[in-house]
Amino acid sequence: MATITLEYDGRNSAIKQLIGVLLTLGAKVIPSDNPKEEQTKMVRESLTTAFSEMRAGKAMKDARNLFA
User: Of 36, 16, 32, nearest to 24 (Cα)?
Assistant: First the structure.
């Protein structure tokens, strides 16, 4: 059996439907052994990406434009 890890926007209805299809086809959700450690890792990766983009000049200076 193979294992995959997914990261997705929880508000995206299309990906939720795709995950539902995968579950009906026999996929299983296995809860994490240590959710706090996993959350810490995700925050660290997110901050690393944000600072890398900022240093590379890819970050938007005004976040309000993201939601326009």
Answer: 16
The DSSP secondary-structure symbol of 66 reads G
Alpha-carbon gap, residue 62 to 67, rounded angstroms: 10
Say which residue, 66 or 24, is predicted with more confidence: 24
User: Under DSSP, is residue 34 helix (H, G, I), strand (E, B) or coil?
Assistant: coil
Q: Which residues contact 59 (CB under 8 A, 6 or more apart)?
A: 50, 53
Q: Record the pTM.
A: 0.47
Query: Token pair 């086809």 is at which residue?
Result: 25
CA separation, residue 50 to residues 7, 18, 54, 55 (Å): 17, 28, 6, 9
Nearest to 29 by CA among 8, 6, 48, 54: 6
